[in-house]
Amino acid sequence: MIVKQRLTAGAFLLSYGFLIAIVVMVAIFSLYSPNFFSLKNALFILHAAAPSMILATGVALVLMTGKIDISIGSTAYLSVAIGVMLMRGLHVNPILAMLIILPIGAFLGAVNGFVVVVLKVNPLIATLGSYFTFRGLALQVSNSMTISIPAQLGNIGSLRIGPVFIDILFAAVVLAIFQLIHTRTVFGRHVMAVGNGAEVAQKVGIPVDRTSFLTFMLAGLMASIGGVLTMFQVSSLSPTLGQGYEFTAIALLVIGGVSLFGGEGTIFPGIVLGALALTIIQSGLNFIGASVFVYPLVRGGIIFIAMYADSLKNMRKRQVKVLAEQG
Amino acid sequence: MTAPSLVMTGIKKSFPGVKALKGVSFEAFPGESLAMIGANGAGKSTLMNILGGVVQPDEGQITIDGEETLIHSPSEAARLGIAFVHQELALMPTLSILDNMLISSFPTRNGLIDYDRGEVLCREALSRLGYEFNLRMQVRDLSPGDQQIVEIARTLLGKSRIVIFDEPTSSLTSREKERLFEIIRYLKSEGTTIIYITHLLDEIFTICEKAVILRNGEKVAQSAVKDLTRDGIVEKMIGSQEVVSYFQHHARQPGPVLLTVENFQREGYLDNINFSIHRGEVVGLWGLLGSGRTELFRAMMGLDQITGGRILIDMGRGARPIRPHSGKNPMGLVTEDRRTDGLLLPMSIRNNLSLANLRNFISRLWPFIARTREEAAANEYVRKLNIKSTSIEQRVATLSGGNQQKVVVGRWLQTSPLVFLMDEPTRGLDVEAKAELHSIISGLADSGAAVMFVSSDLDEIMSLSDRFLVMVRGRLVKELPRETTKHELLATASGMTGTMGGE
User: Fold this and answer.
1) Would you list the DSSP string of B224-277?
2) Which architecture characterizes domain B249-330+418-503 according to CATH?
3) Range(s) for CATH 3.40.50.300 in chain B?
């Protein structure tokens, strides 16, 4: 007895709404500005979107367990700042210093994980704490200064293979790895199971705490990678590095269909669509000569629509959940 | 005769204040379905939770296939081949059928989930039950019956030898129920031991060979089902000695009809409910767990959307329909779980008491709460209901259960509702607090209000009610007068007699 999956018009819009919106946006911007629709601009858009896609990929898993991490911008800054000071102050080999940044990021994520899982602090509050603490520490470490990095490192930010920026390729590789983790590993499935409700997950024998802890650690690791890429793009460590990244990441995840309620969302195409939608708007507004002050307004509007769509989807999920509990 | 697959000997378990199990022993054999029968609080769930590894016994042994074992956790129970099909299914709605079935034991290859093999395993398990699903479908898109099939199929993957079904038919349609029985027969034919918990006696005679009857934490009988009669079972569940009634009922003359519920309908929960309540009477709503008692109250309060029907209330000018979810609902609900649904625990008695009645402490011109009047009202109800506390500023969380419940009642008293709906108002209270609440309930009816209440305590509902309404599976099946016997009440709720509305 095979039951056909129902796909109503509403469900279709909820699932593919933003894909349609992206197509419409590209069409409008191309109409206003002929240069918008070009390979060159497409590559720039992807180049600009690469760091936030990597950051968002890490947080995606946290969101899928039904928790949240708003400290990743600060995590990115602190881990990168430590790496740069090792290089500048202690004259550690630049490549080695850059590599050390990654375990530092993972460690900072683990701190968040510890506070949430072991100390049982609400994730929003816990990561709000580290949002301030990590940035504060980083400002201490770097003396709140803008520090330029050696040219050979800065060049990586604009390095291309053919016409393609290297960080686009890098983001693609990260997305591919996380896609595999999410869809094909036991850990990835456990993440989704925990997002459906920790109690049920516990009942069927899933290591709920370990799974949550790991997602925070991965979010920290990805934050540090995103931080390094950002630094490469601007060739310096600035005191504002990573500022606002957490909200960009969460916004693009919600736009891409990752539910803040947990248990729902995809790495591919979700994150890519979300990142593209945000970056295309920014680039498009730029192209048609809109004031830069319009951008936050437009972005805010999009986030509202995405949140509303998420809540609509969740209502649908909850209805079935009630039945399931009665089952 | 083959050896028993499961023997539980001298199981004892106490919770603070309650001896849940006082040394229960029983055995179950392969290929056999054993019914676990008992009234609410008889110890069935505790006994099964011990077997499922959810709780640890204080004393006693568990022997599985001749080997004595300790079961520390649900996953250990699973390893021993014990599967628990819960009344509330343990499924993850946004995951696929495949993921739900494999979740605790994914087959892997090179560190990745081997979905090809998993799919074969799941298909095989489902086809043994006679089912074929699109395995990539999300579980939330399945009907409750199909969701249960997925959960049962999951137990087959784990090669379970003992499967516990806890009230498995409570939300199934009659077709789905037939299907489930087929599956149980199939499992038995494979040599699986079935433990079947139910309140519905019909099902026991259909699907079980043996029965264990529990009462007050003790086994009162274990015998073959064919040697039992329905009356005999009910007799053993209640026990022969009458419990002394702690509340003396006094005759009351009910007034005119106050509230009428017409054709209440809610898909899957309530089926064409009709009744009326009079001023000055206490109506006991009796039914088994999951029969829809709480759902009826929630629908009356407008907390759940109904798909059909209406409520009429006579407030002195003839019966008029009301919209329950509007702010002017003249009904007050005392919820089943006061700690999560009824009270704001960190707040004071004063705040909790005035919560539903803040409008009376403000005026149109002065939108700030009149503190002195609020305090006076709080003091008045603390005195009236005899809420034992240091002051009206004491946090509700620090009160005893009985006093917390009195705060909930007091809150509604302040709004002077005409109808009180009380869902298990004395659950978890000690004898003294119970008696106090009983006299409060009785007093409300004496003062002309109508009280409708749910209780799983047979003695309590017998002693307080002027009249009984009995629910079975979302339908109101019978109205019984005050003189009804316990036996009749229990039998009606177990679906043994004819129904009021017909099939």
Assistant:
1) EGGG--HHHHHHHHH-SSPPPPSS--------SEEEEEEEEEETTTEEEEEEEE
2) 3-Layer(aba) Sandwich (3.40)
3) 6-238, 249-330+418-503
Shortest CA distance from A7: residue in chain B: B141
Residue of A nearest to B291 (CA): A326
Instruction: Give me the residue from A3, A184, A325 closest to B134, CB to CB.
Output: A3
Q: Could you report the average pLDDT of every consecutive run of 10 residues in chain A (327 residues)?
A: 50 69 83 83 87 94 96 96 92 91 97 96 96 96 90 81 87 95 94 90 86 97 94 90 90 87 87 86 82 82 78 60 37
Question: Residue A251: which CATH number?
Answer: 1.10.3470
Is position A23 within any domain? no
Provide, as residue numbers in chain B, all residues whose Cβ is less than 8 Å from the Cβ of A325.
Answer: 88-89
Q: In angstroms, rounded to a whole number, what is the distance separating the alpha carbons of residues A250 and A128?
A: 14
Interface contact A206-B104, CB threshold 8 A? yes
Q: How far is CA B169 from CA A20, A86, B32, B89, in A?
A: 44, 66, 19, 12
Shortest alpha-carbon distance between residue A186 and chain B (Å): 6
For chain A, the domain total comes to 1
- Residues of chain A contacting B134 with CB distance shorter than 8 Å: 2-5
Cβ–Cβ < 8 Å for B374, B361:
yes
Domain that holds residue A137: 41-312
Nearest to B103 among A206, A321, A323 (CB): A206
Say what the ipTM of the complex is.
Answer: 0.82
- Whether residues A205 and B75 touch (CB distance < 8 A) is answered with yes
Alpha-carbon gap, residue A317 to B49, rounded angstroms: 29
Q: Which of residues 130-189 of A touch B (CB under 8 A)?
A: 180, 184-186, 189
pTM score of the predicted model: 0.74
- Fold of domain B6-238: Rossmann fold (3.40.50)
